[in-house]
Predict the 3D structure of the following.
Amino acid sequence: MRILVVEDEMISRLKLEAIMQKFGRCETAENGSQAVHMYQKAMVQGNAYRLVMLDIEMPDMKGPQVLRQIRLIEAARDHRAAVIMVTAQLSQTLVVSCIQDGCDDYIAKPFNINIIRDKLLKLGLIGGHGENDAGRSKPKSTSAENIFNRINELLRSGELALPPMPQIGIRFREMVRDGADMDKMAGLLKKDVVIASKIIRLSNSASYRGFGKIHSLERAIGRLGLAETEKLVMALSNQKLFMAENHLYRKMLEDLWLHSLACAFAAEALTDTLELNMAVDAFTAGLFHDIGAFALIHVIVELENLGHYDKLLDLEAINETVQVYHKIFGAKLLEKWAFDSEYRQIALCHNNLDIAESITPEICVVHLGNLVAKSLGYIGCGGKQTIELMQTPSAQTLQLTGDQIDSLRKAVQSQMALVEQLLD
């Protein structure tokens, strides 16, 4: 059975995808427009979807609009997919309206595999055997608190270990600060072929290219400049932390890395604009502000690999664990990595100034950088939100103008465009 999951919120999409893969070949769409395009394409190719799991509330096209488009596409062909609407707020009026528009059933969040299996049985999409048997493994009901407590137990026992610090980025930064010569810095980067090749490639891009093509790392560093090279090395070495073999977590970690990178660029640009004398390196503070979220996800993946949980994890509980505990976990990790207390305070308070011991420029810069990143679409593991940057406590504390915030957002967009060149 070919299944299309349509859900704009990442955690819900990953959870639903994980469940639906138990019943067939599952593909996902992040918004209504993409879903309509995928559905139309599948019909034209003669490989139509048999089931669509469709979220009701989405930003570009609402679920009912997508449903009507799907039924219009089907009208000219001898095919009708089952459509199950997914809703966070159960409104009888809305559900009746969707049924009138042609949906076959609905489920309310939060859901689990048993609820979905019962719906599929009811619609005749699965029987008592076959596909259904793959879906009978019931995930353990695990709260965020239990997950976090289990992690701490295994860390204390030594069965789990915290991830190591990205040494090459930190070492390169130290060499720049100590005034090391170019040959020594290039020698360090040559130990990492991926980072070295990306530095050379960027130096030959349209943004930096001079009169001739560069092939040596030393010349690439010279063209980019030490400051730009340092940021790129820190970003690329840090990226390796945000990788996972498990595809359910890979996108989550990639989004988290891009968010952290955008926050780092924003924090640095803000520091330069205001000519702040900081007790921390703004770029590094921004890059590591969410390090606890990355660490928790990696440790949870390791728990799964060690067999402490069923293969089908409760992604909502994982997301809650990350949201609730990533700040304190990040501070502990930075302490283990021997970062100064200012960095640990930023990890603890980057999204809530009210809990800060004192509201320092360092915390405000990363707090605002975090929100600037989200306003540009680099949301990390959090949900989408409307942000009025001028109304934030950090922007008011730093006494920013509207023009300064606009310039800040443009600077971050420009820097992230360079990063995207490295990802191509």
Q: What stands out?
A: Residues 129-141 have pLDDT under 50 and may be disordered.
